Amino acid sequence: MNQQQLFEQIQKKRSFLCVGLDTDIRRIPKYLTDTSDPVFVFNKEIIDATHEYAVAYKPNIAFYESLGWKGWESLEKTIVYLKSKYPEIFVIADAKRGDIGNTSNLYARAFFDHLDFDAVTVAPYMGEDSVKPFMTYPGKWVIVLALTSNKGAFDFQFLKDAESGDLLFESVLRKSQGWGTIENMMYVVGATKAEKLREIRGIVPAHFLLVPGVGAQGGSLKEVAENGMNSKCGLLVNSSRGIIYASNDVDFAEKACDAAKNVQLEMEQLLIEAQLV
Amino acid sequence: MNQQQLFEQIQKKRSFLCVGLDTDIRRIPKYLTDTSDPVFVFNKEIIDATHEYAVAYKPNIAFYESLGWKGWESLEKTIVYLKSKYPEIFVIADAKRGDIGNTSNLYARAFFDHLDFDAVTVAPYMGEDSVKPFMTYPGKWVIVLALTSNKGAFDFQFLKDAESGDLLFESVLRKSQGWGTIENMMYVVGATKAEKLREIRGIVPAHFLLVPGVGAQGGSLKEVAENGMNSKCGLLVNSSRGIIYASNDVDFAEKACDAAKNVQLEMEQLLIEAQLV
Predict the structure, then answer these.
(1) B163 contacts in A (CB within 8 Å)?
(2) Which residues form the domain of B17?
(3) Cβ atoms B166, B176 nearer than 8 A
(4) Residue B192 pLDDT > 90
(5) Exposure of A35 by Cβ count < 10 A (0-12 exposed, 13-18 middle, 19+ buried)?
(6) β-strands B56-58, B90-97 pairing
(7) Phi-psi region for residue A180, left (φ > 0), alpha (ψ -120 to 50) or beta?
(8) Are B246 and B225 in contact (CB under 8 A)?
(9) Contacts of A67 in chain B (CB under 8 A)
(10) What are A77-94's pLDDT values in tens digits?
(11) Residue B226 burial (CB < 10 Å; 0-12/13-18/19+)?
(12) Which residues pair with A188 in a beta bridge?
């Protein structure tokens, strides 16, 4: 999928919502655990209930890995289901991978070749050769961690480079831009650091940003939009727990639908204000 | 396993070799691909042939993930085999994970609870709460990336902090020490940057270091030992391709045995020179 196609989906659905499929077997409704693949059944119900309001889904791979090979099987089934039933939806592997070039190649193979994800999140610590292998697949994207939504972001991401005066996350944004294009790179910028979004837009005006941290982590959607939107929206805002765990009972899909719709309505308003729809 | 037990294994085997199980289905002997689980069969043969000379094994998870759930099944079988047949061996998941605390918890569950790894490699970009969940398992270790062996290490790891004057990898070493102890933390330091090892020992004198990059990547074992050894050896030096792909034919296990033995003999000499055996 290219940038224009993603923007068209955003305009069509009047939404820039990404639903985080952080499916924890310990948190899904009890009655589902009698089925042969509760994680897949849960995901399928959530996807069917929310797809009208979401342009992207983002399984965090940790939740699947914690179940071993059975978790990977649930993940594979989820991606096959998504891609066959809703091919217009952008699907992100939130994997935060990154290794020497030779090995990052294999992670790219895992997520783009073996599975049919559209994008993978990658940590920048190991530099260019850990990120570039993900950009050799046409139409696929790498999403580089810049400024994350957690408390630990302050440990290293704000260190100031003596030479350029840039903070580490700014160095990451500046340097990594040269590795790809606005058609194959995005950045993770946490909603909990929304005040930084305006500065970040100064460095990467045209890239899409994947913004976690709205909802359970405390970030504000309005602030994110005001500081981070560009002429093609340029934002995918993720919500996980607020949607997928809106209810813990037989009505979980219905309540997830309501929660996703509420976020979509807020997003629609923000898109109208920005004259993008 | 605690630090003393690891040192005792090193003394007993007169080796600080870690064998990297970077098992690529496209590189293993062709005749194995007729078996129902070629990756596991290959690993089992390699382990049986080299275990006398190695104190640790390190599957790089990318190689298994690239095969989807079947790869995870091969990984699980490999770990079960290692832990039941050679319980004295230290087993490292080279996963380079790291996410917000809530999610790192799940990665810890994947590698320590679901699988029985002794250690996991973790990227430091997201800071303390991405690393600490791995330290809540008694006897288990987190291995934080400090200075990696690849070319991309120069992109960010050498940025100098304006306030402290530390390079980024030095900031990582200094700050992260406070998150754990020498009994649950190690660091990755690439052999290709052996000249930095002496400085690194100044910052982390007592921690074990996991050193990749000897062999195919060009690092020198002698230099690593001269600059990085401490009173409990303090080193696990990894070799992957040089051992597991020593031959591509029916004698692959035999040739892996020879290659591992050669490295062990060189290590024995270095341990004798350092008066550690």
Answers:
(1) 159-160
(2) 3-273
(3) no
(4) no
(5) exposed
(6) parallel
(7) beta
(8) no
(9) 110, 114
(10) 999 999 999 999 999 999
(11) middle
(12) A145, A210
Q: From CA B119, how far away is CA B98, in angstroms rounded?
A: 14
**Number of neighbouring beta carbons within 10 Å of residue A5:** 12
Catalytic residue, from A96, A175, A255, A261: name it.
Answer: A96
H or E element in which residue A69 lies: helix A69-85
CA A7 from centre of chain: 15
Tokens of B118: 């002794």
Q: Which of A27, A105, A126, A163 to mutate to test the interface with B (most CBs of B within 10 A)?
A: A126
Q: How far is A269 from chain B (nearest CA, A)?
A: 30
Residue for token digits 């050799």?
A136
> Token pair of A239, please?
């919500």
Quick count: other Cβ atoms within 10 Å of Cβ A165?
A: 10
Count how many domains chain A has: 1
pLDDT at A179: 97
Residues A23, A27, A31, CA angle at the centre, nearest 5°?
A: 105
pLDDT at A215 > cutoff 90 = no
Residue A193 has pLDDT above 80, yes or no: no
When scoring A25, A106, A116 by the number of chain B Cβ atoms within 10 A, the one with the most, hence best to mutate, is: A106
- B159 CB neighbours in chain A (<8 A) are 159, 161, 163, 168, 171
CB contact at 8 A, B113 and B138: no
B230: domain CATH number is: 3.20.20.70
